[in-house]
Hints:
- This protein is mainly beta.
- It is 0% helix and 56% strand.
- The protein contains no helices and eight strands.
- The termini are far apart.
Amino acid sequence: xxxxxxxxxxxxxxxxxxxxxxxxxxxxxxxxxxxxxxxxxxxxxxxxxxxxxxxxxxxxxxxxxxxxxxxxxxxxxxxxxxxxxxxxxxxxxxxxxxxxxxxxxxxxxxxxxxxxxxxxxxxxxxxxxxxxxx
Length: 134
């Protein structure tokens, strides 16, 4: 079941340098949300300032990976919430996708009962490239 979807701009890549050859860390932002995501650099080839749609799915009894729409060109599965923090009206949700990390900073209450989700998937829909790309 889809529990979150939003449009983002890939604002920055590998701000703190590259820790691994094939893994990059992207900072995706919009007016109210920041999502930091580790990804396989060989499979996810978006560029800085590309606009993407990112969705988070929770596996439930009647919803599994095969139910995720094919429009999501990049998909990570087996996500486990390992920490949530609430500070005033903001919530940070940290998820591990088999070692690739995602940190989602959103308005508190947008995603309800995230700790009760058994398994999570994150999907990135194809990019709309920034006009200065060649």
